Amino acid sequence: MTRETEETAAIEQAPGRRDFLGIVTTAGTVTGLAACAVPFVQSLKPQDSASAHLPVDVDISKLTPGQQMTVVWQGKPVFIMRRTPEEIALLQDHALAEKLRDAESTANQQPAYARNWHRSLVPEYGVYVGICTHLGCVPGLNQPTGNTADTCGGYACPCHGSKFDLAGRVYKGAPAPYNLPVPPYSMPSPTSIRLGENPKGENFDFSTIEQI
């Protein structure tokens, strides 16, 4: 074969080599993208809802008066507050009730067994989903600084200024339209709370609340 013939053959074969390299490169790229896409697609699949909806038992034996703990229930923060005798008394103050939008808890934001002035099974413990009913921010706890309606503490939303008292009741003039939700819960013992399970004889579906 002459040199001219060899060069002609090389030129004719070059596109074939380029096509092969292109195929290999494309295949490698597609494989890499597929490998990245698998975890991404899997992350879009709904999580196992069976375990997510099981009741959550919380030990409150070490919670002292005036303290609060936060736990997670169905992916939501839940505030459990142990109120002092002074705080319990303030929740019954008529001066405080005058400042609240829904002091009597008429909106469906809690079970029937929590539709009372303390919005809970027992006055000592408050249990609320810690999500502001305005735009879904998580309110912070302000400790009481006095024994009046203006200094009784409560919850404040850091985003838009909504305020709630220590029973989760929203103040008038706040952007939030409703009180903080109360989840279904029971107290199997004086030192434990079971989130997601109503007391015997009670039936409350959390999905029926006005807003969260």
UniProtKB/TrEMBL annotation:
Enzyme class: translocase
Reaction(s) catalysed (UniProt annotation): a quinol + 2 Fe(III)-[cytochrome c](out) = a quinone + 2 Fe(II)-[cytochrome c](out) + 2 H(+)(out)
Main location: membrane
Cell compartments where the protein resides: Cell membrane
One Pfam entry name: Rieske
Record keyword Metal-binding present: yes
InterPro entries with a match to the protein in the record: Rieske_2Fe-2S (IPR017941), Rieske_2Fe-2S_sf (IPR036922), Rieske_Fe-S_prot (IPR014349), Rieske_Fe-S_prot_C (IPR005805), TAT_signal (IPR006311), Ubiq_cytC_Rdtase_Fe-S_su_TAT (IPR019470), Ubiquinol_cyt_c_Rdtase_Fe-S-su (IPR006317)
Co-factor remark: Binds 1 [2Fe-2S] cluster per subunit.
Keywords: 2Fe-2S, Cell membrane, Disulfide bond, Electron transport, Iron, Iron-sulfur, Membrane, Metal-binding, Translocase, Transmembrane, Transmembrane helix, Transport
Keyword Transport part of the UniProt annotation: yes
Residue intervals of the Rieske domain: 92-184
Gene Ontology molecular function: 2 iron, 2 sulfur cluster binding; metal ion binding; quinol-cytochrome-c reductase activity
Topology in the lipid bilayer: Single-pass membrane protein
GO cellular component terms listed in the entry, alphabetical order: plasma membrane
Cofactor(s), by name: [2Fe-2S] cluster
Chain ranges passing through the membrane: 20-41
EC number: 7.1.1.8
Family classification: Belongs to the Rieske iron-sulfur protein family.
Subunit text: The main subunits of complex b-c1 are: cytochrome b, cytochrome c1 and the Rieske protein.
Miscellaneous: The Rieske protein is a high potential 2Fe-2S protein.
Protein name: Ubiquinol-cytochrome c reductase iron-sulfur subunit
The organism of origin for this protein: Acetobacter pasteurianus NBRC 3278
Gene: petA
